[in-house]
Amino acid sequence: MEVLEVNELTKIYGSGDNQVIALDHVSFRVNKGEFVAIVGASGSGKSTLMNLMGGIDRPTSGSVIVDGQRLFDMSESALAIFRRRNIGIVYQFYNLIPNLTVDENIMLPCLLDNRKPDAQKLAKIVEMTGLSHRRDHLPGELSGGQQQRVSVGRALINDPAFILADEPTGNLDSKAGRDILELLLAANRKTNQTLILITHDEKIALQADRILTISDGQIIRDEVMRV
Amino acid sequence: MNILCSFACKQIKRKKGRTAITAAAIILSAALLTAVVNFVASGRAMLVNFLGKDYGVYGGAYMMILLVPAVFLAALIVSMSVIVISNAFRMSANERISQFGTLKCVGATKKQIYQTIMYECILLCTFAIPLGVIAGYLLSFIGIGIANLYMEELNMLVRSMMKQVSFQLAFDFSPAALLISVIISLGTVLFAAMLPARKAMRISALDCLRNGGETDTSGYKRTKITIGAEGKIEYQLARKNVSSHRRRMHSAVTAFSISIMLFITLSGLQEIAGGIQDYITMDYGYPVIADYTSNFRNTINPETGRRQQEWAFPITAETAEEITGKLRAYEDTDVYGDGQDYTTYVAMLTKQDLTEEMQQALADDDDGGQSEIILEVERIILDDMHYGKLCEQAGIAYGGTILLNDYQFNDNGAERHIAPLQVTVSSLELEKADGSRDTVWIDGVLTIEEIPKQLLYPNTNPVRLVVPSAGLSVRGYNWLANPADEDGFMAYAKDVLESYFPQNGKDYGEAGYTSRVFGAQDFARIMNIAIVLAAFFLYAFVFLLGLIGILNVISTVSFQIKLRAGEFAVLQSVGMPSESVRKMLTMESILCAGKALVIGLPIGMAIVLLMARCVKMLFPIPFHMPWAAILITIGISFLVMWTTVRISAGALRKQNIIETIRI
Question: So what's the architecture of A33-58+74-211+218-224 in CATH?
Fold first, then answer.
């Protein structure tokens, strides 16, 4: 069952002599429970693709369909609501709200919906992230690895269609990086959570079910590593 | 608590310094608005007390006198508040722009971002507006108390001249005024916060994350740093920074400019008021004046179509002379009696009758094209004794007509005296409104140097004749007196006038005439009290409004310096000594203050010149630009900017360069 369908996605920045084609007619599909790694050199268009898949940016042409819903046919507000309920995003630089506690940061997508998440579920996610003893801490009181775990927890809270992770280990030391990857893999394997991970670390990419290689805005390779 | 409200709460708690400054600006704004609304309410109560429920015949005019300045002041406060409060919320929003990016990425809608800022505003308003309203009432209470200190003296003076008035500004607490104050204050603050909130909600999530919300750099001026140029690198960087960050500093510079402009305008206004006061303070050498004036109405003569004046109860020369005698009888007081008729006659003249100066003055008034020149005639009667003396002085026999050959007029703000008629003129053809003519023979002429100072009052007609009084009636008559016992004489004179012109308890002018006894300097004293009161309230207003502007400067400058901490750390990391960074910032402060002065000073000076020009059309007063106020303004502007920058820059010393760069 497909959770994500990317069709002829093109993104062009600037115009005339300053025109840059960041994505050039990119198409692929991702099935439920799949772990897809997107790799490519710096400036290849990875982050642009992630922003478009996450509905944060709008394409020049093409479409993104998540769980049968065409993202760019929605109004900006509808897209924001869809995003908080259906897509989990993990950034390289955590992007946590500095004045919210660990619990509050994880609950944020629910709080924006004016609802409190199931306490058991929250406790389960906090436990998964290994931060049960730091639930009332602010991000500034946590290490980089711990902050990134909060970010993963936040991505998981609404059982999204897929998690988009942009270089989630890029800003961490090797141990903390390994912990984050394990956390993401655990979510993928134990709860069949679809995971799309952008990385330029070959070792990480090799753990994925499928590797998409992007270069100059085009997918140049789509390798299935395991079925 | 709603998550958005919780964000707002945390932001308020986290940024205590700026929250305090924003709250202070809201409190000051609400206080000033409340004070203005309360001033209108109290003024209205005073008018009702003085004039009755609908303020009498001129109710509309009185209401306008009350409302126009209030609306003008309120508009000024609202504009200043919107600039300053909006800037405070813009800074708060800018600070959290990457947070907004994260919120947008995890699914916050535009409306939710907007609400986050508006919640912050509402939370601040919940305590700042009630405090402001209380402060406003306190200001009104103090202001009214101070006004009433002068009001009693004002009442005494007016009573002596007009009627039994009792101007009393009462502190009026009206629920309607309270509601209006709260609505205007709240509306102002909400509108001010709405502007940055709408801007923040429109920035895309990507721009929030990538550029800290700064999406448009098209306004940046690209100034080049010249190597080996005369200006040091600190100055060149400062110039470049001021140019690049001019949008960020825009509100501070604007608020500062408005404060400067208001201060200069007010100082100019005070200078002009002083000039008017000097002009109306006339010293004839007679400390007490008694006068009588009949009511009049202007009608159109049905046969000639010319305007004529009808007097209700003119005073006859015989009555005036009788009163003069009675007033002199009080301890042998020196009394000078003179009466005027400004409207009965016009003189029919030719160009040859006029001096060149008068022809020139008339040409300026665009009357030069006519062959027959018509000038208004002022007939003056004097008490018998002084008329006799004047005849003697003019070298003519008692009973002749004397031409006072002086015309005083306002020549573009300067008081000018010219001799209107040629000395060769021996008779004048005078015409009434009904077209009948009389020939008057001029027996003697007095020039400006020879005219007694009692007859050199303002607003004279061009042709002035002192005529024998026998059988004449005039509209008004003055008795200038120099008694040994002023108070005793004034009481005596009042009784004398009351016996001739009984008021029967009627109000000013209601009997068909008015008679008064007052001190010659009373007008000047009333004017002086009015100026002192107006200056006190206006300076207090400008001071408080200026304080809002200064709070804005402090808040903006300190925020910008914090925001640029990374930039300063980079400069230091590449070898710029911290002393040079501080020098650069000092120069930036000088450039910003200079910019505010370049905008505020010329506008303020232009307004002052415009006001002076308008006033000079009415009063021939000397006017000087308020240079002292201008110098003080320049000094304070540089001082405020420099101090703020130095204090904010001082906080940077504690920062670690590497840590700052990393952040």
Answer: 3-Layer(aba) Sandwich (3.40)
